[in-house]
């Protein structure tokens, strides 16, 4: 991963670290590595979203472990120096700066440590479409609903999950949401 970190310009790596700290502080649901990767690629750097996600996981693990052990900035940098001799100098500088500025704000409660996370809902988008025809059927005129859920997995990576439903499936889906809303009203 160190060779991939070396590819990332310092400003993008700093932004990644900032987002990870915000995620660990529960200020944002996750790190949007796909969007950040696209911006890095637009600047001319060859990196794929999988590699960026691995780097985000490593840095997230680093920050959460440092928070759990109440490491000072110097202890963290010393530990990094001992453990990872191949880490680029600019990356160590960014980690030092971000941890110095915001590291102490990460609260790691006992409950949060023991809680199994399942991910977090971020956003939903939907659209109604009609399939007019296909290569096997000339006249479909078949309506469907496409739903895209944006979800932050437990590590903080934001992913899109898409699925299509027929109108009867969508009506059932909608009915279940109305039932959930009614139950939530009683809480």
Descriptive overview:
The protein has 187 residues and is an alpha+beta fold. The chain has 2 domains: 1-114, no CATH class; 118-185, Nuclear Transport Factor 2, Chain: A (Roll). The protein has helices at 2-7, 10-24, 33-42, 49-68, 73-83, 89-102, 110-114, 167-186, and strands at residues 120-131, 142-152, 158-166. Strands 1-2-3 form a 3-stranded antiparallel sheet. It starts with a helix and ends with a helix.
Features:
Nuclear Transport Factor 2, Chain: A, 17% strand, COMM, 187 residues, single chain, alpha+beta, NF-kappaB binding, 8 helices
Q: SSE layout and pairings?
A:
Layout: H1 2-7, H2 10-24, H3 33-42, H4 49-68, H5 73-83, H6 89-102, H7 110-114, E1 120-131, E2 142-152, E3 158-166, H8 167-186
Antiparallel strand pairs: 1-2, 2-3
Helix pairs in contact: 2-4, 2-6, 3-4, 5-6
